[in-house]
Amino acid sequence: QAQLVESGGGVVQPGRSLRLSCEASGFTFSTSGMNWVRQAPGKGLEWVAAIWYDGSNKYYRDSVKGRFTISRDNSKNTLYLQMNSLRAEDTAVYFCAREWLGGMDIWGQGTTVTVSS
Amino acid sequence: DVVMTQSPLSLPVTLGQPASISCRSSQSLLYSDGSTYLNWFQQRPGQSPRRLIYKVSNRGSGVPDRFSGSGSGTDFTLKISRVEAEDVGVYYCMQGTHWPPITFGQGTRLEIK
Predict the structure, then answer these.
(1) Which of A30, A105, A37 is nearest to A73 (CA)?
(2) N or C terminus: which one in chain B shows less Cβ crowding within 10 Å?
(3) How far apart, in whole angstroms, are the C-alpha atoms of residue A62 and residue B30?
(4) Among B99, B102, B103, B109, which would you mutate to test the A interface (most chain A Cβ atoms within 10 Å of its Cβ)?
(5) Residue B96 near residue A103, CB atoms below 8 Å
(6) Measured distance CA(A94)–CA(B92) in Å, rounded
(7) Within the 46-65 window of chain A, which residues sit less than 8 Å (CB to CB) from chain B?
(8) pLDDT at res. B56
(9) Structure confidence by residue, pLDDT tens digits, B23-36
(10) φ, ψ for residue A17 (rounded to 5)?
(11) ∠ at Cα B70 (B35, B37), nearest 5°?
């Protein structure tokens, strides 16, 4: 069945970097747009970034522009989120999700990022 | 940015009774292709979000038919015809018409009375 598995989360100091990965299986990753969505502790869902199926277009929320980079390797069925200059307010569970018909139909289990000194 | 406003934020419901959640957008979600990209998600405690409804009223794969979505323009509703224990969680609406950014509602917490 279709599945997304995130990895790469952890505890990191403010100003440092982290790279998240999301491995896809059970569907054709190379024809799917993908998203990163985060959820701060006890808070709601917040969209972070999106990338087209071929990587040709990328979109970010304002608060992460210039700090985060979304990318993908279709040969490895893997989505990435490179996070630089991390701030305390980036602390959250990060989910990857497949775009489908203007929504998100497949979600991973999430990976936790904690930014703290 | 399109602001999505849900009400109520907390919804206590008796088992077997209906429930309804409202979602209003700050601008019409009708896209130029004629579709309205309004989605509903359920997040059970400790779990990832699960898509229930896409394009206002289409149920996702495996979603029970007690869940239904309706609405148009800026006003949308998620209805549960008879609440079951497994429906406890937080429900979010999300718009995919005017992006970036994709935006979510604040969430509505459904609990059993």
Answers:
(1) A30
(2) C
(3) 24
(4) B102
(5) yes
(6) 17
(7) 46-47, 50, 59-62
(8) 98
(9) 999 999 999 999 99
(10) -120, 160
(11) 30
User: What spatial distance separates the first Cα and last Cα of chain B, rounded to whole Å?
Assistant: 36
Coil, strand or helix at A33: coil
CA angle A9, A4, B111 (to 5 degrees): 85
Structure confidence at residue A66 (pLDDT): 98
pLDDT (mean) for A54-65 = 97
Q: Taken in order B101, A47, B2, B99, is the CA torsion positive or negative? A: positive
The pair of three-digit structure tokens given for residue B9, joined into one six-digit string: 């934020």
Cβ-proximal residues to A61 (8 Å cutoff; 6+ apart), any chain: A46, A47, A48, A49, B100, B101
CA dist B28 and A78 (Å) reads: 35
Residue ranges in A2-116 assigned as alpha helix (H): none
What integer is the mean pLDDT of A10-28? 98
Give the nearest partner residue to A103 out of B48, B94, B100, using CB atoms: B94
Q: How many CB pairs under 8 A join A and B?
A: 72
**Which residue shows structure tokens 């459904």?**
B110
Query: Mean pLDDT over residues A65-84, rounded?
Result: 98
| Helix/strand/coil for B63 | coil
